[in-house]
Amino acid sequence: MADEKKSIDSPVDKVDDLKMSRGEKPEIVVDLEKLHDLFVYDEMENKIRFSDIYKHQKTVVVFIRHFLCFVCKDYMEDLAIIPLEYLQAANVRIVVIGPAPCKFIKPFKKETGFNYTLYTDPEREIYKALNLKEKMEHGDDKNNKHVKQNVIMGVLRSTWKAMRVQEYEGNIKQQGGAFVLGPGDAVHFAHIDENSLDHTPINDLLEKAGVAAVSFPKDKRVQHI
């Protein structure tokens, strides 16, 4: 009888497991040890060990797409308005990494008004080590809290700029992600972008890092900055 009951219950258990897993993203496993010997570059072409970025301080690390991406431009503009005193109060820093040659760092910071740290990973070694996706896929901007441009106009502007400069500022297939790391090898949050519009809302990142919320043009969670 016990064997008969087991044969009846087993299919039900399997169905329950399927229901529980439906629609859920697999857990992101971040192996920071394999990143210890990888480097990023600053605007002066200096090499910085990736693990040194978050070695002594909790750090919000955002990986963006190429520097001609209008979605990333809007996201960077919102990152730029986070008050420094909010970060200092929580002892947190923000670092953005792009897949472009480091010569584009200075003009991109000027274009977006971003005054925090921006590095590049032109060979995308860290992108690959973190399994960030490499595929051309655009999502829905309906739920994105940081895209302020019309999508069609944004694409046209990006295309026009690419034609004007005649040089890609990073691999156009590369998608990004966001992490809250450190001190040391602590991983507090990890997100891998599924498409070009799948950025983590900045206030969600700040919350994971213990930083006070900020009011953004499309995410007005507080009355005043």
UniProtKB/TrEMBL annotation:
Q: What is the top-level taxon of the source organism?
A: Eukaryota
Q: Which Pfam family, any one of them, does this sequence belong to?
A: AhpC-TSA_2
Among Gene3D superfamilies, the record links this protein to: Glutaredoxin (3.40.30.10)
Question: Which InterPro entries does this UniProt record tie to the protein?
Answer: PXL2A/B/C, Thioredoxin-like_sf
Name of this protein: Thioredoxin-like protein AAED1
- The species is Mizuhopecten yessoensis (Japanese scallop)
